[in-house]
## 1
Amino acid sequence: MKNKVTDKANDLKRQYDSIALSGDDKTTACDYQLRELEIDNGLNFIHDGDTILDVGCGPGVALQEYATKRKVKAFGIDYSENMVAFAKSRIAEVEPTAQIDFRCASVDDLPFEDESFDVVTSHRCLMALLDWDRQQKALLEIKRVLKPGGVYVMMEGTFDGLERLNAYRRKFNLTEIEADGQDRLHTLKFHEQQLADFCVDHFELIHTQRFGMYYFLTRIVQPLLVAPDAPKYDHPLNEIAKQIAKLVPDFDEIGHLVGFSWRKPVDSNANKQSV
Ligand SMILES: C[S@@+](CC[C@H](N)C(=O)[O-])C[C@H]1O[C@@H](n2cnc3c(N)ncnc32)[C@H](O)[C@@H]1O
């Protein structure tokens, strides 16, 4: 079982190394309109003067927005050297004045001192760990580098949100979306209750951002509208869906991507379980 996970993880790393060479920043977020909604959510927690870190930063699209919309000291890590090289060259070209420190590292072994960051963000990175043990290790590593009172804005997929979306799709005779990475790449989503049970000892949940309206319009309405053609991420409806979702974000908590904002307690021993 562990070997299978390791093989899949190695395959995934190779895929990211190769994707990075495409020079296309949408390859790490096919649903690039959704990434914009994720970034809006991240921005709500980032303030001028903050030191921030984006883990699994890919080509640095989110960091570019964070570092230009806020006066921050920005860091990005990605385990793919090619991805880090892509992020550096991309930012030098599109936002040469942005000062972003990109480094090659894994999210479960961060090359930073304890309590370095006001905000850590992830946009679909911990799902790539493919293993709940490693995901827990990464959550603890993120907690380690957060300052007391700092916030981790975790934008990752959940099985629960996907199942709620699939329940709607079944009502409309649409095929179910597979849980392990219908977006080409193999991933391991989170079980919301399991995540909450783990995090309760380490963080305080301060906000949950759902994107249900965007999912409803793009994963239910669009497929019905364009059938028998296949839905497309660049369909004009997705742009409209994004605009609607900015005003009315949720629809029955459907959709796999969820933004959980976790605050590290000021006294981080406060909610450690006694053993
Ligand atoms: C789905 S992509 C998202 C990239 C970027 N956040 C975005 O929204 O465009 C996942 C990213 O996480 C990176 N990644 C996967 N596993 C990682 C790990 N263990 N440590 C650091 N980065 C990782 C991949 O190389 C890839 O760039």
## 2
Amino acid sequence: MRISSRIENMLGGGSDGWDVFYRARAMRARGEPVIELTIGEHDIRTDPSILAAMDRSARGGHTGYAAVPGTEALRAAIADRVTRRTGLATAPENVLVTPGGQAALFAAHMVTCNPGDRALFVDPYYATYPGTIRAAGAVPVPVATRSSHAFQPTPEALEDAAHGGAASLLVNTPNNPTGVVYDAPTLEAIAAVAKRHDLWLISDEVYDTQVWDGRHVSPRTLPGMAERTLVIGSMSKSHAMTGSRIGWIVGPVEVIDHLINLATVTTYGVPGFIQDAATFALGAGAALEDKVAAPFRRRRALALRILGNHPVVRLLPPGGAMYVMLDIRATGMSGEAFANSLLDAERIAVMPGESFGRAAAGHVRVAMTVDDASFADALTRLAAHAERLAASAGDTAGSRGPAAGAPGG
Ligand SMILES: Cc1ncc(COP(=O)(O)O)c(C=O)c1O
């Protein structure tokens, strides 16, 4: 069978580090009581008020083709939200409604990259990034970050990567998988490199409502950046609407016009009743967003209490998003080996850092997606497991330092 090389090579080959996830799912299917802290899916459902709006719309007849760029009402609601939250005047014409953030990421690379262009992205990264870039015909180029620098990209690393020429730079704050929120110097370095090397900035802000200290800053608002930034938004995380597939791109009007042409030949828009539900949800304002974020805020506080000063497990600064990242190198294990041993010994499933790129080797990502009591119990048992491993590594190696050959940072 002849398959295009673009599709055949899209995933890059090699192990994707998701074995732990599939093993946990299989154990659960066999009836074993596994605590799953793997994927970014809320433990609550879409709010009933949003579902009622969806139902009203569908029964009211909004089940035919919907406007490809998005309904007037939803584009206006998104533009209002962006204007209000960022202080940067944004019009409905700056908005394209998409079936989720993932489709927006693909479209953003399609509109900014020619085939063969280098497209930069920060490592560790959301697992679909390299494949999405390849699917758009571009060449993914990671910008390495270091755990010791809280996985914030440095000006030097950004400059190094951009030096060889590139069409775009993809950043994500609050970050999946690290839970880190980029600070002002990082955002300024990102803007500076984008301007100096004439890059499009693709700013993935799907976790913008999950910032635990201070507030979210969109790099689009920095001087000279609005004309070169495409913001990826989504209601998956902010409104627990993962299955509704609703998101957007905000950017310059001329780019949005090209993206509308792309949508016409790909998605042909988003179902009208989903868009009406989204318009309703955005109309409910910050109160609803805070309600959806509240469980993660509580669990982040639990993580700080349980792991804040742990001698073996190092908790990275959990600034935002629904994850915490743990440095477990003091156990002498890779993230993958640790995650597998935790699943076998404690029936707790976490994601190996290696699933999210080389920079996160020796770490595990913990999704805060189970009830508070189970979450606290899982972290306590994870920490005890790590202590036992570190003690036995110390017995055999005569040291409790990081594993030999563990990646830098
Ligand atoms: C950083 C990041 N970007 C984009 C997405 C895509 O989300 P969706 O397509 O559901 O909007 C996710 C989902 O987990 C994510 O973590």
